[in-house]
Design goal:
The complex is a heterodimer of chains A (284) and B (315).
Chain A: E1 2-15, E2 18-24, H1 28-31, E3 37-42, E4 52-55, E5 58-62, E6 72-80, H2 84-89, E7 97-104, E8 117-122, H3 127-136, E9 142-148, H4 157-163, E10 166-171, E11 178-179, H5 182-192, E12 197-201, H6 204-217, E13 221-224, E14 240-242, E15 253-255, E16 262-264
Parallel strand pairs in A: 8-9, 8-12, 9-10, 10-11, 12-13
Antiparallel strand pairs in A: 1-2, 1-7, 2-6, 3-4, 3-7, 5-6, 13-16, 14-15
Helix pairs in contact in A: 5-6
Chain B: E1 18-20, E2 23-25, E3 29-31, E4 54-55, E5 72-75, E6 78-81, H1 90-102, E7 108-112, H2 117-127, E8 133-139, E9 143-144, E10 150-151, H3 156-169, E11 174-177, H4 185-194, E12 199-202, E13 206-208, E14 211-212, E15 217-218, E16 225-228, H5 233-246, E17 251-254, H6 260-269, E18 273-276, H7 278-282, H8 286-301
Parallel strand pairs in B: 3-18, 4-7, 7-8, 8-11, 11-12, 12-17, 17-18
Antiparallel strand pairs in B: 1-2, 5-6, 6-16, 9-10, 13-16, 14-15
Helix pairs in contact in B: 2-3, 3-4, 4-5, 5-6, 6-8
Classes of the chains: A alpha/beta (284), B alpha/beta (315).
Chain lengths: 284, 315
């Protein structure tokens, strides 16, 4: 993990309110693990004062400028415009200078090969699941259950399909795919594949519902949490969640940035987890 | 002098070292408590030995859980926080965090606090013989739970009392960190100087509040939090200026410093050193950039020793 001063390669709206940004990111294709994140800063800009955390959608190589040059690494972020930071981000263009701190945090554990894998993504929460699917399709059956309020919240599903992932879309208003919550689909899939492992990221109410379903069935679950954070490296203690066994006398706080953002469900105290949605537009 | 300004490249580097309460700092830049963890968090990004000193997260007698989340939010050019002084407790600190800090060259200043007079005294006593602890910084911005939650640092008599008691228990250099949430900062500064403080650092965060207008809830769970960041710098510079006028002990300036130019304001009004806080979150390398910037400024201005700059405010 390092702080890179780098530039934007592209920044485009992919669905109303959702943007996809490609950034030159040395070392990331080699180092970044599925589920890890970056702290993003607009160089020389204030506001926003604090960096914003974003999950990495994918990493790769851009074609070299000319023959014989080594290929350059990039990452892609997908973010939803929700506040002052992301409003500034949507105005950025190719060549604009930014800073990336990362890759940060603990990513997903890929689990056992040949096991059924079910990914559950809600809206912008889909972002960290892509790299995970990329790695998993090599040796497992991967299914993606993607939920959103409306069709606008359903993003990049075809890219998952191109990886060979079976995808199931549901929207609350029925404007795309099945009408209803993604958790209904999850119940059905778990009926069919009771030994599957589940990986999820999305709004807190969805994650909470997924956790209840998995806990009641004894299904293995990894969750990627969103949180407001200032530093991303475990210093500010702004992003803490309560671990199992937490009490005021014996605090078992875990930093979302450092111990997470991906947790095994059984590491967390779900009865006392902050259920308020951080709603930070694709941040971790 | 004015003619040669910025035109000659000096071969000798300016002297950056400062001395506070018998402690030698290789430069006047150190982290503000609570923004730098226990040092190790920032080791991947920054050579900790470049810093004038390391200041730890605030320690209490027992581990402290801290507040509910959300604990932070961004405001205009600043941030509000109500972390609640979450920390591992003094014994775990000494056992698990101190061994890493002890092997650094930079002196380690341990920040501590209490919610009763006895707690302050006990924490200071436990740090007395710990190897590697160069000095103590005492946070007096905490409520005294035995006296209706009145913050020690907001009443000169309470501040005097708690600093006097700690002074009796420690032979280490004692820095007292003041809260700005008072009517007259000079009164508290004089009280803690009189009680035996070797140095004074200020300002801690200003109390503030922000509301989410959609949910009509406070934006942090604790409702009220501490405001930090560039937004508070002019207030901090004013208060440091006032305290420098009022006391003889050295003063360490804190509040919204993110660049060398910001640090210089504090030095010019008379702070002998500065602490960098919120800027560490924005840029983990911020302090190294500030140290480089201070050195460049001195070279450019033809200042051979940074001490020659301190307290040179012209009014």
């Amino acid at each position: 993990m390092k702080n890179h001063k780098t530039i934007i390669l592209s920044n485009q709206e992919i669905s109303p309110g959702y943007y996809r940004m490609q950034i030159l990111a040395p070392e990331y294709n080699r180092l970044a693990k599925p589920g890890q994140f970056v702290m993003f800063r607009v160089q020389r800009s204030l506001p926003p004062l604090l960096r914003r955390p974003f999950g990495i959608f994918r990493a790769g190589y851009v074609a070299p400028d000319c023959d014989g040059m080594p290929p350059k690494e990039f990452i892609e972020l997908i973010y939803k415009v929700v506040g002052s930071g992301t409003e500034i981000m949507q105005e950025l263009h190719q060549g604009d200078r930014i800073e990336l701190l990362g890759p940060l945090g603990r990513g997903f554990d890929l689990g056992e090969p040949d096991e059924e894998k079910i990914l559950v993504g809600g809206g912008i929460g889909l972002v960290p699941l892509y790299m995970l699917a990329e790695k998993m399709v090599a040796n497992s059956n991967v299914r993606l259950l993607m939920g959103g309020r409306t069709r606008d919240d359903i993003i990049t599903v075809t890219e998952f399909e191109r990886l060979g992932v079976e995808t199931y879309v549901s929207t609350e208003d029925g404007s795309l795919g099945e009408e209803g919550l993604v958790t209904q689909v999850l119940e059905r899939k778990l009926d069919k594949y009771p030994n599957a492992s589940v990986y999820t990221c999305g709004p807190m109410p969805m994650i909470d519902a997924v956790q209840k379903i998995c806990a009641s069935r004894g299904t293995s679950l990894q969750v990627s949490l969103e949180a407001l954070m200032a530093c991303g490296v475990g210093a500010c203690l702004g992003c803490v969640v309560k671990g199992v066994g937490h009490s005021d006398e014996n605090p078992q706080y875990l930093c979302t940035c450092k111990h997470g953002p991906v947790f095994n469900a059984e590491e967390l105290d779900w009865s006392r987890l902050e259920k308020r949605d951080a709603d930070c537009g694709g941040c971790v | 002098m004015a003619e040669t300004k910025g035109q000659t490249v000096k071969m000798t580097r300016p002297k950056m070292a400062v001395e506070i309460a018998g402690l030698q700092f290789k430069n006047p830049v150190m982290p503000a408590s609570g923004t730098f963890g226990y040092g190790e968090e920032y080791a991947p990004f920054l050579d900790l030995n470049r810093l004038g000193a390391i200041v730890t997260k605030g320690l209490s007698l027992n581990p402290k859980a801290g507040n509910a989340t959300p604990r932070i939010c961004e405001t205009v050019s600043g941030m509000l926080n109500a972390i609640g002084l979450q920390n591992v407790g003094i014994d775990a600190f000494i056992q698990h965090k101190m061994p890493f800090l002890e092997q650094l060259d930079s002196p380690v200043i341990v920040n501590f606090f209490g919610n009763t007079l006895e707690e302050y005294v006990e924490v200071a006593a436990r740090l007395e013989d710990v190897p590697g602890v160069a000095g103590l910084e005492m946070n007096i911005s905490c409520p005294n739970v035995k006296h209706g939650g009145i913050v020690f640092g907001t009443e000169a008599s309470a501040a005097h009392e708690v600093v006097s008691q700690v002074r009796k228990k420690t032979s280490k250099p004692l820095i007292v960190k003041l809260t700005p949430n008072v009517t007259n900062i000079q009164v508290t500064a004089k009280a803690v100087e009189d009680a035996g403080a070797d140095a004074i650092s200020l300002i801690n965060t200003l109390t503030g509040m922000a509301v989410d207008v959609k949910t009509r809830k406070p934006r942090i769970a604790n409702t009220i939090g501490g405001l930090s960041g560039p937004a508070i710098r002019p207030i901090a510079v004013r208060m440091v200026h006032q305290v420098v006028q009022a006391v003889k002990v050295p003063v360490i300036g804190i509040g919204g410093i993110s660049r060398a130019m910001d640090a210089l304001e504090f030095l010019i009004v008379g702070a002998k050193a500065v602490q960098v806080g919120t800027a560490n979150f924005v840029d983990p390398n911020a302090m190294a950039t500030i140290i480089d910037g201070l050195e460049e400024f001195c070279q450019y201005e033809g200042i051979e020793d940074i001490n020659d700059l301190i307290g040179t405010l012209e009014v």
